[in-house]
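Thread amino acids onto this structure.
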């Protein structure tokens, strides 16, 4: 194999686009970054950001030397739309790249970032939630990932929606809204003093204002309230504790749709809600250890995982543990 042979790894997320160029020994020689590259939420700007990150990563390098490329894409199914794919293909060829890009899901990239093993399970819990069964580094089955309207149980959106629903129930009943309820009011209606709501009329007006404000915004923004739930949890709010506990239970149930008691491969957890510092993530790890065998790992650098997969496509012998450690650290 020529020493000049290169590989490309990419991670197209909702808030950032990252590209890495590595040589065949796993040494990173180029990096590029731009704003969000999710092809579902904003395809035109995502394609432009994709191109910008590629150009930045390839500075001073010959794009013709890139022989394999693996790119993880949140919302990657949108690339099956010919119009969306054409925009991404134009950004690709516009950077001078001649190899074919292999677009894969963010579940596969998350799994590869957490372990060099070929088989196992992965769970992403951030704004949304989804689990996947991985065999030979490829996704074979999924559970949930149905979106905020139909699923994403235990996700950041779920936490935010349930926090709002618990507040509205308290207002319906004229009960004290508690610490979590006050924090939700402050987050959604920053000019309102939740402590001033003392009479039935005040409860009704606050309830109506909350409903009107939330319905005027994109629904997925309820996920922003997940931070409020975590803060209230840290202050021992009973409702927040119940929501965090239920979120961990739901995520465990999602995993159980795919993983059986006979599976002993690693399980990789990814996303802010499933993170090691998240109260949901902590309870989730306990629950997983109680229900399943196998090592529980935390996803690391997604673009590094994609680059490591690209090395394996170039030559399976290059998908070593040392190269994995080098790229995802």
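Threaded sequence (329 positions):
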């Amino acid at each position: 194999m020529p020493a000049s042979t290169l590989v490309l790894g990419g991670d197209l997320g909702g808030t950032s686009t990252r590209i890495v160029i590595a040589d065949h020994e796993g040494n990173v020689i180029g990096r590029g970054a731009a704003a969000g590259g999710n092809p579902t939420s904003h395809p035109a700007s995502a394609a432009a950001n994709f191109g910008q990150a590629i150009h930045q990563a390839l500075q001073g390098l010959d794009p013709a030397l890139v022989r394999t490329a693996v790119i993880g894409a949140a919302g990657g199914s949108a690339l099956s739309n010919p119009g969306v794919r054409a925009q991404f293909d134009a950004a690709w060829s516009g950077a001078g790249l001649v190899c074919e890009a292999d677009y894969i899901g963010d579940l596969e990239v998350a799994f590869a970032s957490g372990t060099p093993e070929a088989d196992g399970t992965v769970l992403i819990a951030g704004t949304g939630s989804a689990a996947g069964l991985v065999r030979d580094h490829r996704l074979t089955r999924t559970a949930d990932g149905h979106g905020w309207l139909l699923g994403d149980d235990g996700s950041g959106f779920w936490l935010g929606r349930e926090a709002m629903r618990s507040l509205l129930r308290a207002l319906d009943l004229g009960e004290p809204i508690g610490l979590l309820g006050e924090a939700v009011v402050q987050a959604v209606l920053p000019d309102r003093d939740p402590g001033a709501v003392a009479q039935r009329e005040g409860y009704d007006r606050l309830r109506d204002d909350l409903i009107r404000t939330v319905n005027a915004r994109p629904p997925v923004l309820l996920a922003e309230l997940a931070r409020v739930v975590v803060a209230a949890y840290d202050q021992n709010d009973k409702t927040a504790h119940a929501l965090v506990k239920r979120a961990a239970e739901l995520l465990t149930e999602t995993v159980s749709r795919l993983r059986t008691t006979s599976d002993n491969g690693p399980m990789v957890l990814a996303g802010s809600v499933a993170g090691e510092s998240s109260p949901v993530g902590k309870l989730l790890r306990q629950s997983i250890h109680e229900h399943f065998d196998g090592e529980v790992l935390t996803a690391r650098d997604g673009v590094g995982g994609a680059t490591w997969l690209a090395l394996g496509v170039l030559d399976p012998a290059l998908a070593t543990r040392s190269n994995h450690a080098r790229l995802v650290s």
